[in-house]
Amino acid sequence: MIVVTLVCCYAACWGPTKKSGVDDVTHVTHDGYYPSIHHHAMPVLPLVVRRDEKIWGMLYQGRSIPGLTIRRYYFWFFGYVAKLPYKREI
């Protein structure tokens, strides 16, 4: 009975994560305005938010260097945001 209650409470956190979690992660991780970086955050699981950071390519000595996208994961708990140690290039 306790396990079912905990699973239901965890599943009930999906709505607040979609509403407030994405905004909180974007606000906490916003590091100023950089025109070469595009940030996109979205919920993956209840209390877990994924944030993609697109770093645009640039020209170097007449050659185009492709952009890089880094995917990071954050734990969100009603205003508290912690960066998880998982990231990857996509």
Distance between the termini: 41 Å
Contiguous runs where pLDDT drops below 50 for at least 5 residues: none
| Number of separate strands | 6
Structural class: alpha+beta
Write down the domain tally: 1
Order of helices and strands: HHEEEEEE
* Overall helicity: 25-40%
Specify the oligomeric state.
single chain
β content, as a range? over 45%
Query: Rg from C-alpha positions?
Result: 17 Å
Task: Please state the overall shape, judged from the principal axes of the Cα atoms.
Answer: elongated
Mean pLDDT: 81
Biggest sheet, spatial arrangement of strands: 1-2-5-6
Separate helix tally? 2
Biggest sheet overview: 4 strands, antiparallel
Notable traits:
90 residues; alpha+beta; two-stranded antiparallel ribbon; 6 strands; elongated
Structure description:
With about 90 residues, the protein is of the alpha+beta class. It has one domain. Helix content is about 30%, strand content about 50%. It contains 2 helices and 6 strands. The strands form 2 sheets. The protein has a 4-stranded antiparallel beta sheet, with helices on one face. A hairpin with a 2-residue loop joins strand 1 and strand 2. The longest helix is centred in the N-terminal third of the chain and has 16 residues. It starts with a helix and ends with a strand. The mean pLDDT is about 80.
